[in-house]
Write a structure and sequence with these properties.
about 15% strand, 8 strands, 11 helices, alpha/beta, four-stranded parallel beta sheet, about 240 residues
Length: about 240
């Protein structure tokens, strides 16, 4: 029997770096398929702004991409974008999930929903959040997490309008350890599927002695759960270490 196939709807054209980072979270026994949205809004000269991100979840492109993944054999699908799923609030996030389920006929989630599910799975109440985005987006992220039942004790925004993939994992580790973590924090959430985090999750957890949940990690964890194939991925944090086949 072949590997269980899971699908990720990507909000833009898929770059080699995106796929390479995602695959670091995929354990043996799972096959990852990724499909870009075919009608993503173009990034304007101001870069990643609130107005740009608000356009990401609108239109039929997400559902169409989910359907293509299902046609190729995916058993569950996720919309792999944190900001694009929290930006319109919980109702907007739920609408994305419903659109994918209707179009594809398989279980569906989003990165924001997956992150909330992961934090609840780990028993987190108080969370500190790192986001690469501008403050207008970070306010929406805070509101989304609070609506999901978490107390956001600290949120650091890097105010980047582009080139998020170029942020080095070592920089992320430095910001989290020096500027983000607080004694009151139960766990760290690192937002944005564009950030490269796989290489530093274990180091951060060892350093801070608390769980670290990241966008890609949570997305792969949740979509695997929905596909009925929870699996352990070594060296990718407590969330995936706690999963069982």
């Amino acid at each position: 029997m072949g590997a269980c196939r899971i699908g990720i709807v990507w909000p833009e054209a898929v770059q080699a770096g995106h796929l390479a980072e995602l695959e670091l979270f995929v354990p043996p026994g799972l096959a990852l398929d990724i499909e870009p949205v075919d009608s993503a809004p173009e990034l304007g000269p101001e870069g990643i702004t609130l107005a740009h991100v608000e356009e990401l979840p609108r239109g039929p492109g997400i559902g169409r991409a989910a359907r293509r993944l299902a046609e190729r054999g995916a058993l569950a699908v996720a919309y792999g974008c944190t900001s694009g799923s929290y930006v319109l609030g919980p109702d907007g996030d739920a609408a994305i999930v419903a659109d994918m389920r209707t179009a594809a006929g398989i279980p569906a989630t989003t990165t924001s929903a997956a992150a909330a599910a992961a934090l609840h799975e780990l028993g987190v109440r108080r969370v500190a959040v790192l986001s690469p985005h501008v403050d207008a987006l970070n306010k929406r992220l805070r509101a989304y997490l609070e609506s999901a039942g978490f107390e956001v004790v600290n949120l650091v925004g890097l105010n980047r309008r582009g080139d998020i993939e170029a942020i080095e994992p070592a920089e992320t580790l430095d910001v989290v350890s020096k500027d983000l973590d607080t004694p009151e924090t139960d766990a760290i959430f690192i937002s944005c599927t564009g950030l490269r985090t796989a290489a530093v999750i274990e180091d951060l957890e060892d350093l801070l002695c608390k769980p670290v949940v990241t966008a890609n990690q949570a997305t792969l964890w949740h979509v695997a759960q929905l596909a009925g194939a929870p699996a352990s991925t070594p060296a990718r944090g407590r969330l995936l270490a706690a999963s069982t086949a």
